TrEMBL record:
Highest taxon listed in the record's lineage: Eukaryota
PANTHER family recorded: PROTEIN MEMO1
Signal peptide: none
Record's protein name: Protein MEMO1
InterPro entries in the cross-refs: MEMO1_fam
Similarity remark: Belongs to the MEMO1 family.
Entry-linked Pfam families: Memo (PF01875)
Source organism: Zingiber officinale
NCBIfam families for the chain: AmmeMemoSam_B (TIGR04336)
Amino acid sequence: MERIRRAAHAGSWYTDNGKKLDEDLERWLLATHLTKSPDVRGVIAPHAAYSYSGRCAAFAFANIDPESIERVFLLGPSHHYYTPRCALTRATIYSTPLGDLQVDTQVNDELKATGKFELMDLHVDEAEHSMEMHLPYLAKVFHGYPVKVVPILVGALNTENEAMYGQLLAKYVDNPKNFFSVSSDFCHWGSRFNYTYYDKEHGPIYKFIEALDHLGMDIIETGDTNAFKQYLKDYGNTICGRHPISIFLHMLKNCSAKIKIGFVQYEQSSQCKSARDSSVSYASAAAKLDD
């Protein structure tokens, strides 16, 4: 029996009108002027409402060549549900206004059999937006292709578990039929996010945020998991997908394929100029085979 995860954020975080959604995504994808590449094996993309981050996310998903990809692993942070582990879905279908995406139940069962994952209830699954915001783009890019998804909700992991999950998932990177969609926004700045760190040397607040984010992005591009951990410790940057990103870095470190992450777009929801302001940063990256 099919168990359907509804597109719970359609109609609020993005339009539930399939035609309008398709047009929006098409426009944003075309505006990137990027070329699809079979060498791109994964992306890091934001997960805010499309009015904020839809345009930036296009710079990740426009890189995808759907021809030889059979499954997409989704790694998204848990915003509302606490777990010190990673969780798998109980659903068999992830619904979007652009059509349904089938869950790869075989790989899901394979991961479940390791004993390292918990199962999330459907209400937890539907309440979480971090993976859902990638789904319409995946449904759009893979339209007409029989792709399946493997959603992994990433909890509040310690350093050891980030490494453990990275090692466990690394073998899937070596199969070129697998693709990885890592969900994260970058700095959440302002008193409503309990983060107001500011170094005046960089000029206005928004320029400091940009410098802070780019420092983190540069470290992510090196693939150095320890340096990324140290950066988060030093600056406390509120990168909500830090655990999925860390797992992905460990996966790339432990797989045989040589894959390098490169950021292609950076944006902010607004420009912070005073302590009363707030903003969220968005960054898109492509993880590409490095010959």
